[in-house]
Amino acid sequence: xxxxxxxxxxxxxxxxxxxxxxxxxxxxxxxxxxxxxxxxxxxxxxxxxxxxxxxxxxxxxxxxxxxxxxxxxxxxxxxxxxxxxxxxxxxxxxxxxxxxxxxxxxxxxxxxxxxxxxxxxxxxxxxxxxxxxxxxxxxxxxxxxxxxxxxxxxxxxxxxxxxxxxxxxxxxxxxxxxxxxxxxxxxxxxxxxxxxxxxxxxxxxxxxxxxxxxxxxxxxxxxxxxxxxxxxxxx
Length: 235
Ligand code: DC
Known about the structure:
The chain is built from 10 helices and 8 strands. By secondary structure, it is of the alpha/beta class. The protein is globular and about 50 Å long. The chain binds 2'-deoxycytidine-5'-monophosphate (DC). 2'-deoxycytidine-5'-monophosphate is lined by residues 15, 37-38, 41-42, 101-102, 105, 131-134, 182, 186. Residues 15, 37-38, 41-42, 101-102, 105, 131-134, 182, 186 line the site of 2'-deoxycytidine-5'-monophosphate.
């Protein structure tokens, strides 16, 4: 087996831009590991809530980071997130927890503490890593950077449809308000605010359906990176 250098594809963008779906579908096509860094902030928040830790207490939150043992498995239609042996995929995405993740995300101490963990995924694998600051902070030297964006309206609609499908009772207006608040949290924070890296390829996901978007991303990846033979036949 020929060894090759691990490669890193960074995908950043706001909530609801479709980056999770894009990353999940792109990764197996090029035989890379999909790493959802939002899930790391979410799992940390879950452990803090369960441990009765004050989410305002940055030191206490950061002190939980060494206990994180997160892994990912790709299921047919979504990514499964594990904290140790325990599957936490659903718990970390419920609306109550989602409304609390900003404490961890806004904390410089927590962000700092999470850097080595995020980087460690690329030690043993080529990765498609998605988040807010992957191309700017975590892997400024990523082999390829995408910034996925779409107008607020279409992002809110996308999220709303996802939540409907899961049986969540929430109005489109609520989702839009929630999205606006999360955008503001992500964009205005002092540490690692959401922005496109200078060398990121910006893609407006509102212009594509899911299949079209993934094909476009894969086309760009194959034109820019040497993808090892054997990864072509996957879909
Ligand atoms: O992508 P998501 O909705 O699962 O992200 C959850 C939260 O974590 C969201 O508030 C943004 C934040 N986040 C971040 O600040 N940096 C990342 N690299 C990933 C997520």
